[in-house]
Amino acid sequence: MKYEVLKLLARNARYTFEEIAVMLDTTEENVANIVAELEKDGLLKGYKAIVDWEKTDEAYVSAIIELNVIPKAGLGFEEVAEKIMKYPQVESVYLMSGVYDLNVVVKGKTLQDIAWFVARELSTIDSVTSTTTHFVMRRYKEMDVELVSDKDDDRGQLWV
Amino acid sequence: MGLIDYSKIINKTVEEIKPSGIRRFFDIAASMEDVISLGVGEPDFNTPWQVRKAGINSLEKGKTKYTSNKGNDKLIAEISKYMSRKYSVEYNSDEIFVTVGGSEAIDACIRAVVELGDEVIIPQPSYVCYEPITRLAGGVPVIINTQAENDFKVTPEELKNAISDKTKLLILPYPCNPTGAIMEKEDIEKLYEVLKDTNILVLSDEIYSELTFNGKAHCSPASIDGMKERTVVVNGFSKAFSMTGWRLGFACGPKELIAPMLKIHQYAIMCAPTTSQYAAIEALRSCDDDVKYMVDEYNRRRRLIVNGFNKIGLTCREPKGAFYVFPSIKSTGLSSEEFCEKLLDSKKVAVVPGNAFGDSGEGFVRVSYCYSVEHLKEALKRIEEFLKEL
What we know:
The structure holds two protein chains of two kinds.
Chain A: H1 2-11, H2 17-23, H3 28-40, E1 61-69, H4 78-85, E2 90-95, E3 102-108, H5 111-121, E4 128-135, E5 141-142, E6 145-146
Chain B: H1 6-9, H2 12-16, H3 21-31, E1 36-37, H4 49-60, H5 73-87, E2 96-99, H6 101-113, E3 119-124, H7 130-136, E4 140-145, H8 156-162, E5 167-172, H9 185-195, E6 201-205, E7 231-236, E8 249-252, H10 255-268, H11 274-286, H12 288-311, E9 324-325, H13 336-347, E10 349-350, E11 352-353, E12 365-368, H14 373-389
Parallel strand pairs in B: 1-10, 3-4, 3-5, 5-6, 6-7
Antiparallel strand pairs in B: 2-8, 7-8, 9-12, 11-12
Helix pairs in contact in B: 4-11, 5-11, 6-7, 6-10, 12-14
């Protein structure tokens, strides 16, 4: 049940407890308890909107930055990853398999913002040996949601 | 040189088939903007990716010729395994053939057995094709008006009353479109007691067989002792695997029945679409998880919409199968068609009048829940407003 609740909330965090209860054939109270527990245990980290910033007047740029890092004895990548994640510009930080180590998603108002951030902050961190910056040119899908499709129902209105 | 008189040309039986009320209704809905429809009777999921891929692969390999009349051998072997593992009915390869959707199988079965004046028993409310196809074959539809208080099942008494010495065929359309009713093992066993000393054939339309809820698996009439030899099972890929546009179904039955059906198929159709057949092999081999995902999703929507209707004051029984609910609108004092027209007019929500599925559907509307939860919620909200303004 816990997992079912999580799956529904991950799909749409605005489902009410009552709706979730009906869909999962349980009580509203039970759902409320489960959600409280999930929040307390840190399985549910937050609820945020998916925004198509391109459609707004806000200036919005983001980039994926590949970092190569020298891991520290005993600490591995933790120390540098935790340092990087504290920057408010940083949206996400992942440790990667493959040819580079850390994948950092950074957002800003202009390309310049991000360029400066990389040049002045990320590349100056001691253990960072190289950075490769990829600017996002267009967003097609964000957190499971298609941003570009006009999802018309193309089902034939057949008499079935 | 006179103009041709078409009225003398058109087959009278065809002319007398009434144009479906829903067609007119959908045409109105289609001409309006921002209509929120609950009318569509097909899944909103896409065909599982690996199935689409299998279709594409077959095209890339140039598998673009006819198959044999009865269908691809591998597909028939998979259908045989599927019928065994899902519904515990064993069919050999000469007891199965592949059709253009379940619809073609229904047509072939009725045409293969019905002669002028033969009676075909059709439980209603049900899908709209049985009656016209019966008439086209020269048969006489005998309607059983199933009742809400019996959960829209066919009772042995109703069956007994419908049988005459002209009865040739009984249609069992379960899980049922539009009522969502299912027939369980005990229900079918009771019908078997009525049928066993007759020479009546059963056409079991099981197109919604994968879509049953609350752990109640579909029971195929053919799996009941004594029923297999008198049953033609029709099933297909449209609803179970979200493959409506692929147009693929199949029929299973005793070879004495499959052979004459295949004769019709051979001349009218030749063979089912080849690409679809290759895709269907993949569907039967690797889609159990996809089907489960879809059924779970339908189930959540089903609960939401049953609860929603009951909450706003339209009594809605819990449907056990298919993807429709069939709430009663009797409390509004409106006829089904009035209800639907007014609802469409004032709130731009399209649902289907229950009487479109037979007279016994009067007082109900059919609501499909092949839509996202958000869509369903919005529709329920508008219907609630509509009821308050009545």
